[in-house]
């Protein structure tokens, strides 16, 4: 053990707090909390570690240790959550794909709010409902809601189009046309309040109101209007029946079910609101090997409720969970009211918890089967490539290169990396072509290959600009293109003393694979996993290069348009682009919209608008 690390272990305090383990590059490997920092941290360095198999390899990588003392275990839990979110340590328990779940968002901060599908949950002035189990369910819910409540389905913070006439949605009774003033902001806000009430689980007031309007219209012999209210009532009742099952004695509670298998776990969350089971969410956890149920539930609670739109007053956890008082205290602070985290001994909550546990076991089994099928398919694809391309070994690490340009404008290159037939996005790299004049894809490919392999090997590893992607040698290099691109890449690689690296190119026309020293192309079975893997890698390289090319082109165009404007420097230029998202939206913005840019003074915004319109830019 390093002397400096050993000295830190000797001086650890016995107070509660948070500890961070770092590697030689000062990257955070693991964040943990402890009631006693001295006792907890030292347990990692005794023979056998702390008993968790997933952390056995951790102690050998620890180069430095940092501790932060807190006043209580709850404060330590708070701090641990923030540090895990910031650093995303590889050895901490984490939710898989925790950012990709769909939500329903209501933009209450706008004059005429929207109700829309989203996968984000961090904007101010937006109320989120979810996460939901799948995107299809969200879109079906939005379709029914729009038929029942007629909120505006158009995009953008302001309703309508520049034409000044209502769109088709108004004529088919899918919108109240706030864009042309057919509904007042107050009346439209009442519609949005009803949507929020419904999504919160309160369906009875909405059903009663629609029934009264339907009967009133029928009594007054306004039968077409009565039929419209009947259709909306049926839509609301259908949606309520589909997503709710009565549990009158339960109240508002989340019920958690947990299943653990080796290094993975599945969690099912049953959401009951006002005695109704309004939704079920499934999650998968990684890095849980050797963890007890209490630790896994606590880690999940921090991750899930740390970004959830709301926290219920009660959370029912599996029977094996122990003391979760620190988590309850933290969630109570977040909710602004008491949150009870406990097990259920009997009754309906116990039955629901068992049901959630059974669902978690099923989800884990299904996920395990899917992972195993994917693993077998990836192995088969790699073996097919080794055999078809006559490779010396399995192409565990594959790097693919592509060039993107339009004419001579902003040529760029991309490098994407697949390891074990899966994308390794942390190793993707972009290249701005510097040494090529005119449109010359071959020379551009040679430059990218040269810059990539110049940094391969032990010499580069000791340099200040260490890059883990560049110092790792590939087993297979894939060039997007035909024989010309392949020849350019091979010529560039010959300038370096490289290990044996197989190089091929993949041409798009009929998916021909070209191999050095072979005149004809290798044609693989279109349905074979090997060719499909190559196509996936090639398409990913093309997507990555095209995105970088568009980014550089837009940045250059944006800079050229705004270089001559008074009052606009690099900071305000970036603020405009960040706020509006594209040059076209900046040029089309009204004076009021320009004044809404946070970093832009109102006087400067008006001056920009005047200059753009005077120059004919808008």
Protein architecture, described:
- This protein is an alpha+beta fold and 618 residues long.
- The chain has 20 helices and 19 strands.
- 43% of the residues lie in helices and 18% in strands.
- Strands 13, 14, 15, 16, 17, 18 and 19 form a 7-stranded mixed sheet that branches. Strands 4-10-9-8-11-12 form a 6-stranded mixed sheet.
List keywords for this structure.
about 625 residues, alpha+beta, GIY-YIG endonuclease, Nucleotidyltransferase, domain 5, seven-stranded mixed sheet, six-stranded mixed sheet, 20 helices, 19 strands, about 20% strand
Please summarize the sheet with the most strands: 7 strands, mixed
**How much of the residues is beta strand, in percent?**
15-25%
Rough outline? globular
Mean pLDDT: 81
CATH superfamily of the largest domain: UvrC, RNAse H endonuclease domain
Number of domains: 5
Would you state the CATH class of the largest domain? Alpha Beta
Second rung of CATH, namely the architecture of the largest domain: 2-Layer Sandwich
- CATH topology name of the largest domain, in short, is Nucleotidyltransferase, domain 5
Question: How far apart are the termini?
Answer: 66 Å
Q: Specify the helix fraction band.
A: 40-55%
The rounded Rg comes to: 30 Å
